[in-house]
Amino acid sequence: MTYSSFLKAEFLVLWRRKQDVFNALLFFIIVVVLFPIGVNSSPEFLAPAAAGIIWCATVLAVLMALESTFKEDHRDGSLEQLVVSGLSLPLLIVLKIIAQWLVVMLPLLITMPLLAEMLYLPSSGFWALIGTLLVGSPSLFFIGVIGGALTVSIKQGAMLVMLLILPFYLPVIIFSTLAVKAAQAGLPYSGFLAMLLAMSLLSLVISPFMTAIAVKASVNA
Amino acid sequence: MQSFASLTISDLWIERAERDLCKGLSFSVQSGDVVRILGENGAGKSSLLKVIVGALSPEEGRIAYSGEDVTLDRSILQQDALYIGHSVGVKQRLSVAENIRWYCPDVCTNVLHEALKSLELIDYMDTPVKKLSAGQTRRVALARLWLSQKTLWLLDEPFASLDVKGVELLEERIQQHALAGGMVILTSHQNLLSLASRDVMLLP
After folding, report:
1. Cβ separation B102–A77 shorter than 8 A
2. Tens digit of each residue's pLDDT (9 = 90 or more) over A151-176
3. Which domain holds residue B110?
């Protein structure tokens, strides 16, 4: 096995699991669409709340997609093969997250202009929102994958992943929505983006090692 | 494949779920050896293979590969070892050929076709593994034995789910590997008198 053959197989598996990815995307769209219908559809309410709505929906969609990250690999024994492959397990995990991020986040980003328009998000806020999603969402994946690895041998682990991981997502949601609000008010928001980038980089450094420990423990369980 | 390799296990102690599986186990394997691990169900045969390949950590003991102590870091051994466990590590959503390319990316197409012909999988090359039977899935995993150049093979019940022809093919391949200077450690309840050069008995 090589890193490139691993990455290629990851993309192929994700492509054939498109139902899961589609479910996450559908869930994201439904949450965003239902919000104005259920709460308030006036532009005065939706424009300031848009970033928060989109980020909360993104977090839930990502959690939904991440819960099954290692489950299939654990069932068929390929997770064990990764552990004993002689390749760096943290690096394999980084590659797995990159593949997941691309497959889950790209469709979400593609739907964003339409949803932002629907929520009356002004263009200044829209570009800030895209910026926060680009620099902040990797941290969602790097943090969330730890929960996925910890609960890999638990059949109904989705709720546990949510309880374990959600508190760590709060700073990302707070800084992202603050960045969009600052942009909407015409204030500089690069500081918030820098904070989000720092969170993503910090999780990139820490998460693969923690996930590798959790994966090894799950394989041994 | 290494021209000469050896594996030395000294005073190994494996504990699983607060139960001693083997204590003070010592044996060595050299190029050309086929070692069968014997023992009752739950004696720790699979755990021993996992400890050797580094999926599990022993409580105590020393593991040396080709003279180098690999007890704390098994990466040198792992790069030269092929492990097939109870769960064979075959991705259900990938086809037979994709699974093999995942594990052996550098294999050329002719060699891949030859191996698949030998294993009677050539007609299923592009079939997703989830559509194959248990025996065929195991053959997909065992195809690695035909295509990989690794010296040390660690096989956990490799004959399980195989039909008579599959067993014969695998026995033949193991013999070829041993003759070429490889090392094989396997667990099996199969009678392997002609195949195994040595047995290691795990006592409860």
Report:
1. no
2. 888 777 778 888 888 999 999 999 99
3. 86-149
Q: How far apart are CA A77 and CA A219, in angstroms?
A: 9
- Quote the ipTM score: 0.86
One domain for residues B41 and B67 = yes
Name every chain A residue with its beta carbon within 8 A of the beta carbon of B104.
Answer: 1
- Choose, out of A11, A17, A21, A78, the residue to mutate when testing the contact with B (most B CBs < 10 Å): A78
Residue B142 located in a structural domain: yes
- Rounded to whole angstroms, the Cα distance separating B203 from A142 reads 44
Assign residue B172 the CATH number of its domain: 3.40.50.300
Same-domain check for residues B9 and B71 = yes
Residue B165, burial from CB neighbour count under 10 angstroms (0-12, 13-18, 19+): exposed
User: What is the C-alpha to C-alpha distance for residues A36 and A31, in angstroms, rounded to an integer?
Assistant: 9
Instruction: Say which residues have a Cβ less than 8 Å from residue A181's Cβ, sequence separation at least 6.
Output: A48, A51, A125
Question: Which residue in A8, A17, A216 is closest to B93 by CB distance?
Answer: A17
The residue of chain B with its CA nearest to that of A79 is: B89
Q: Which of A9, A83, A220 sits opposite B91 (nearest CB)?
A: A9
